[in-house]
Design the sequence.
């Protein structure tokens, strides 16, 4: 697998609009003994919201993990244009509810990448944590245990952890899944604000409503890319009936 940064090195074949934050070619990835992603070629437009959409098991989380650098592709090219390393917000269910962590400690973990695990947080770190918590409306939950928060509150704490990394590239796995409509709308509006402020946001989602509100969609089925572009062009009745089989 080739990973490239800052447009250096050899260029894989194909056209590459300058406004892309990530481009990948012929990407294959999976788990030991199980190939999940097959020959994916596409890009993530900069300063927009992109939805990785598809039914459960289609490979959205795996692709997001590859883009976040937490899963290694087995082959292919992956190229990031200039910017900070991505901030990754994993699925809420993947984060233990029983961890003895307060909301604030959870957000502080977002600074570990820069600070190291055991180093004391600096004033700059604390400011980043404070402003992320305020932005997500969770400052008043700082001392509460993660496990005692509602699903929507916990999700906002996890997004605040991502935001505390102060990256211009935010990758979120199912950020609105399982939340009530109010919590969902709140998070959707917040992600739109982040894009307006200059962040490139990618969310994996099987929520079609969330996908329809994105600027761009990558539609996955069985680990293959079967559509890419604006939601109104990709999420057509025909495409959806191919992907979401009844029963
Ligand atoms: P989605 O996010 O679209 O639901 P995933 O990327 O989570 O899809 O999963 C794609 C496929 O990879 C599924 O068949 C799933 O069972 C499999 N898979 C996911 N995680 C693992 C893992 N850690 N080990 C083995 N197989 C996995």
Sequence:
């Amino acid at each position: 697998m080739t990973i490239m940064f800052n447009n250096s090195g050899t260029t894989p074949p194909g056209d590459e609009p300058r406004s892309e934050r990530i481009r990948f070619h012929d990407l294959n990835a999976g788990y030991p003994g199980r190939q999940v992603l097959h020959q994916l070629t596409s890009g993530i437009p900069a300063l927009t919201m992109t939805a990785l959409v598809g039914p459960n098991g289609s490979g959205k989380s795996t692709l997001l993990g590859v883009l976040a650098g937490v899963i290694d592709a087995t082959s292919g090219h992956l190229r990031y244009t200039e910017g900070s390393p991505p901030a990754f917000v994993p699925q809420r269910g993947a984060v233990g509810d029983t961890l003895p962590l307060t909301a604030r400690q959870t957000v502080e973990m977002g600074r570990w990448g820069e600070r190291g695990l055991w180093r004391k947080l600096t004033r700059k770190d604390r400011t980043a944590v404070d402003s992320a918590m305020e932005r997500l409306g969770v400052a008043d939950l700082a001392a509460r245990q993660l496990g005692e928060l509602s699903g929507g509150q916990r999700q906002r704490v996890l997004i605040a952890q991502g935001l505390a990394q102060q990256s211009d590239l935010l990758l979120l796995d199912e950020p609105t899944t399982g939340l009530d409509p109010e919590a969902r709308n709140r998070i959707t509006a917040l992600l739109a604000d982040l894009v307006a402020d200059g962040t490139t946001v990618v969310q994996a989602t099987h929520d079609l409503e969330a996908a329809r509100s994105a600027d761009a969609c990558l539609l996955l089925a069985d680990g293959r890319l079967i559509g890419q572009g604006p939601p109104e062009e990709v999420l057509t009745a025909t495409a959806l009936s191919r992907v979401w089989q009844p029963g």
